[in-house]
Amino acid sequence: MDKRLQAFERLLNIVDEVRAKCPWDSIQTIESIRHLTIEETYELSEAILASDLKEVKKELGDLMLHIALYSKIADEKGAFDIADVLDGISEKMIVRHPHIFGNERVENAEQVSQNWEKIKLEKEHNRSVLGGVPEGLPALLKAYRMQQKAAGVGFEWSDATDAWQKVEEEKLEFFEELKTKNEVLNPKGEEPKTDDRKLTTENIENEFGDLLFALINFGRMHGLNAEDALDKTNRKFRQRINHVEQKARENGVGIQNLTKDEMKAFWNEAKEVVGV
After folding, report:
1. Cα separations (Å) of 123 from 46, 58, 89, 114, 155?
2. What's the pTM value of the predicted model, to 2 decimals?
3. Which of 46, 95, 217, 275 has the most CB atoms in a 10 Å sphere around its CB?
4. Residue/partner pairs of 142-149 with CB below 8 Å, 24 or more apart
5. Top-level CATH class of 3-95?
6. Got the DSSP string for the chain?
7. Is-contact 169 153, C-beta < 8 A?
8. Cα 98 → chain centroid
9. What is the pLDDT along the chain (276 residues), one digit of tens a residue?
10. What does 74-133 look like in DSSP terms, one character per residue?
């Protein structure tokens, strides 16, 4: 037997066993392990960003266990089993790759992506182009996926230059709202009205959101995922701050006791020491 099938069969047998005999596993429901699946997904994401393939392997195993357990629970309810899950994704892959399993021809990966979205609309009768984007996604990733799906049906800038012009346009509108804020919230000789303060803040937030959305779109057109890019920058920032804190402790103080010049010096040092 193929060792992959043998390993998968072993996992399914183990899930059957623990589901029947383990006090914890036997009482789990699809709802009760949902939050654990989310946690495992984030752990996989961290391992990928860290380029730690050993950890990626471990986290993939954890997710595979969850898939097997979900399928086992559903099988007990007579809803579906693991074979249905695997057959379903296999059929989806065949339908969405007509250039492999059919007669359609494509020239590049971009055409494959566009066909993918068109097939979902035409053959799977999705109600909306954006119907497959979960509302619960992190905002940066959600923006990226919505833009990606819209582009798949032709709703796209003609080139990245136009996308950057949109960034510049949104930047100007954002700064215009900041200017308005100073005029409204700091009038000469009078207290700003509460309604004016609230409206101005909302306008600034709206324009800031538009600017972020445009910037995410520009990055996407250059093959950049804003969620991944910002996550890597967050990790870099954390490492550098950790270095600054460590240097402060070595000097017998907390980071809050450092002068601005000391912070800057340790920060620049972190670029060399941490390597990011």
Report:
1. 35, 36, 15, 14, 20
2. 0.69
3. 217
4. 143/212, 143/213, 143/216, 143/217, 143/226, 144/216, 144/220, 144/225, 144/226, 144/227, 147/216, 147/217, 147/220, 148/113, 148/220, 149/117
5. mainly alpha
6. --HHHHHHHHHHHHHHHHHHH-TTGGG--TTTTHHHHHHHHHHHHHHHHTT-HHHHHHHHHHHHHHHHHHHHHHHHTTS--HHHHHHHHHHHHHHT-HHHHSS---SSHHHHHHHHHHHHHHHS--S-TTTTS-TTS-HHHHHHHHHHHHHHTT-S-SSHHHHHHHHHHHHHHHHHHHHHHHHHHS-TTSPPPHHHHHHHHHHHHHHHHHHHHHHHHHHHHTT--HHHHHHHHHHHHHHHHHHHHHHHHHTTS-GGGS-HHHHHHHHHHHHHHT--
7. no
8. 28
9. 799 999 999 999 999 999 999 999 999 999 999 999 999 999 999 999 889 999 999 999 999 999 999 999 999 999 999 999 999 999 999 988 989 898 888 888 878 877 777 777 776 665 688 888 888 888 999 999 999 989 888 899 999 999 999 999 999 999 999 888 776 555 555 555 555 566 678 889 999 999 999 999 999 999 999 998 998 899 899 999 999 999 999 999 999 999 999 999 999 999 887 665
10. HHHTTS--HHHHHHHHHHHHHHT-HHHHSS---SSHHHHHHHHHHHHHHHS--S-TTTTS
At 156, the amino acid letter reads: E
